[in-house]
Design goal:
Layout lengths: L4 E8 L3 H16 L4 E9 L3 H11 L3 E3 L2 H6 L5 E4 L6 H10 L3 E4 L7 H14 L3 E3 L7 H11 L6 E9 L20 H4 L3 H17 L2 E9 L4 E3 L6 E3 L5 E8 L4 E7 L8 E8 L2 E6 L5 E6 L9 E5 L20 H15 L10 H20 L3 E2 L1
Parallel strand pairs: 1-2, 1-4, 2-3, 4-5, 5-6, 7-12
Antiparallel strand pairs: 7-13, 8-11, 8-17, 9-10, 11-12, 13-14, 14-15, 15-16
Helix pairs in contact: 1-9, 4-5, 5-10, 6-8, 8-10
This protein binds alpha-L-sorbopyranose.
């Protein structure tokens, strides 16, 4: 391939995801042949000291303290939105109007209404767009997609998925502020529904097609927390835990659960799909392995296969080390950029696009509506 074209990145935010995405930009061209090469042009955040420190650490060439200034710059081709959810809408719409490519952290927006406006803006501007639902691109999950698309599972009957954490059990954890903005409904829009279940939903729709209807329950176990910005104890508006039943458009039934109160679980994301001919399951704590049961196997040796997805003919692995050697969580972000840049400008852009992420947002909104009304919500 000829030399990749520079793609000047303007990063907005410097937290956990700012680091995960920047790391992906740094690595991607060393391992994948791509038409573009991300260049760390500018990093932006209100806190000048913090953003300078971040820029120095990662090698961004410059900094800004106002995202509007970043969008005015002609030397920025693409912006990466890594700020709390309540800022996605305004920044993404302005970025689209400025003609920038947009990579936005998940979830797309605070709600469907915002998401629809964001989709309309990127469509009108014709700018490439992506939402960072990274778990699709763990090689074992991508292999699951291949197996399903090849028809190896046959008709799907069941989908089940969980995302379990335990970091907000203490009443001392504040709401608002760096990291803990996820507990502040004004910044996050929802709790585990938008933060964790959204991952499960994105993967589920990708693997098993659209979700048609849901019935949900949510709970807020800790009702009041100190707000990090004001020091005041105020009511908690997010869902601490959420569970829902769903019907997929293909007729399969599903059960999903997410919580930040599952003592002992740090980030246990699991999924299982049961089909007529085969089943598969995956677990983020053992992310290289895909469990696969094929009823077509000779009955005397039939059983769950524990596939270590690390061979060159398995998704992405030919770009890394040698068979048997593992990669990790951060590589799911590298693969996200690699796929995005490979397909950008083609008729089949790598998802999840804003439009794909809007489908996930619709399910999230339906979960919250159902939990409130106590009845089924159609998507
Ligand atoms: C929350 O703890 C969190 O960091 C999410 O915000 C991420 O999206 C998830 O991948 C891991 O958990």
């Amino acid at each position: 391939m000829s030399d990749p074209k520079p793609l000047n990145i303007g990063m907005i935010g410097y937290g956990f995801m700012g680091r995960a995405h920047t790391n992906a930009y740094c690595k991607v061209n060393h391992f994948f042949d791509l038409p573009y090469k991300p260049v760390l042009k500018a990093a932006c955040a209100r806190n000048e000291e913090k953003i300078k420190e971040f820029a120095n650490n990662w090698g961004y060439e410059s900094t800004e303290t106002d995202w509007r200034k970043l969008l005015e710059r002609d030397d920025i081709d693409a912006v990466d939105i890594c700020v709390p959810n309540n800022l996605h809408h305004e920044i993404a719409i302005a970025a689209a109007e400025a003609g920038k490519w947009i990579m936005c952290e998940k979830p797309l927006a605070m709600n469907v209404a915002e998401g629809e406006e964001m989709c309309a803006a990127v469509e009108k501007a014709g700018v490439p767009n992506l939402v960072w639902y990274n778990y699709r691109r763990c090689p074992a999950v991508t292999l699951a997609k291949q197996l399903i698309d090849e028809g190896r599972l046959g008709r799907v009957f069941h989908y089940r998925s969980q995302f379990l954490q335990d970091w907000t059990i203490s009443e001392e954890v504040p709401q608002g502020g760096a990291g803990t903005w996820r507990l502040d409904v004004e910044a996050a829009g929802s709790g585990v529904t938008g933060d964790l279940l959204a991952h499960c939903i994105d993967t589920a729709i990708w693997l098993n097609g659209p979700i048609a209807s849901v019935t949900a329950m949510t709970e807020t176990f800790v009702k009041e927390r100190v707000h990090a910005e004001t020091g005041e104890k105020t009511p908690v508006g997010i869902d601490d835990a959420a569970a829902f039943l769903a019907r997929f458009a293909n007729g399969s039934l599903a059960i999903f659960e997410s919580t930040r109160y599952a003592r002992g679980h740090k980030a246990l994301y699991t999924l299982e799909v049961n089909g007529e001919k085969a089943s598969l399951s995956w677990d983020l704590h053992d992310l290289h392995r895909l469990q696969y049961f094929d009823h077509g196997d000779d009955s005397v040796v039939r059983g769950w296969r524990n596939i270590h997805v690390s061979d060159g003919d398995q998704p992405y692995m030919g770009n890394w080390w040698v068979p048997g050697l593992q990669i990790g969580y951060e590589h799911s972000f590298v693969h996200t950029v690699a796929d995005f840049l490979t397909h950008v400008g083609t008729d089949s852009p790598a998802g999840p696009t804003f439009q794909d992420a809007l489908e996930t947002q619709k399910v999230c909104d339906a979960i919250l509506a159902s939990a409130k009304s106590g009845s089924w919500s159609n998507i």
